[in-house]
Amino acid sequence: MKCDYVSVRLSQVAEINPKPAYKLKCNEVVSFLSMSAVTVEGVTSEGEDKLYSDVNKGYTSFKNGDVLIAKITPCFENGKIAQAKIKNEYGFGSTEFHVVRAIPGLLDARYLLHFLRQSNVRLDGEHRMIGSAGHRRVPADFFSDLKVLLPPLFEQRRIAGILDKVESVKQNSDLLIKMLQVLPQSVFVKVFGNLTEKESSLPTVPLRDLVDPLRPISYGILMPGPEQEEGVKYVRVVDMKDGGIDVGSVRMTTVTISAAYKRSLLKQFDLIMSIRGHVGRLAIVPSELEGANITQDTARIAVDESRILPVFLLEYLRTEGVQRWLTRHVKGVAVRGINLSDVKNIPVILPNLDLQRDFALKVKAIGCLISSYRTQLESIEALFASLQHRAFRGEL
User: N or C: lower Cβ tally within 10 Å for the chain?
Assistant: First the structure.
């Protein structure tokens, strides 16, 4: 640690939940931020215009530039800590925000933001949460008591500037990946049309006729039981992300339980679709999950590749028109879902295999780009974590 750095309690250099020291007129316009307006990336929207008279009671007040911390679970654990960048000078928002205001001349607001967004601060905050399950909150005194390494103000700004630049590169890379992830749908629409209701005259085949007859469309395990250290992997809806499966998050059930549902065992290139809760999530089974199983919330579609390719079927089922068809067939109140009989009857267009293969090659090329950028993003994230770790130990 450099000799001109000092360690102080955060409350010595910042105000925690400051009381308004300003008087506003009833018809003055302020910015309103809901919880959804604060992102896990550390930014906010510019806010919704509201009259002061509409929000001066029952909401949290703050100023442009203050740091907002979502104090309630799971928002805090997810990293909803951001600097307010609002359209108006004054703002109001959810009562589930803590407000931290850097004292001018002592603490730089961006340095403060990066300090509070450290993973170790979040982990320590989780351990200090109070309240009942589902309504646990981080108390304000946790932040008051935090020890922050305080270099001179010009050094704080230099450090914050470095972290801002790397974080900007990280966010741009993440945005690029998200743009690439929706590109297959754009290619699909360009090649095969957007398949809206106006195009329902296209010839179709029921989905049940496009699967391996020995492996009909099936749902999976009703009660997987406690998680096992060894056994058979099974995929939950929560494991299905961005057209793929988060293999690292899948759980295991016993061989005995899985054997009772051998009808839904997976093979590479099978398609799975969520049929309860979030209906319509889709993924192609990778080689690592050969022999795994699924839950009752998911349907396994063993694609007959002599007629239709998995990649084509995945993107077809993700189209706006098909997703709208699925929504119309969802039933239930407490637990929303679609019957397996309806899944089997999904109307599917069937272009010739050459067109499908050409489309699949384009999607594969996009997938290679995504993999490349993900590797790059992982390197950037590792660099940012290293810089952040060094920054608040006086080593940057």
Answer: N
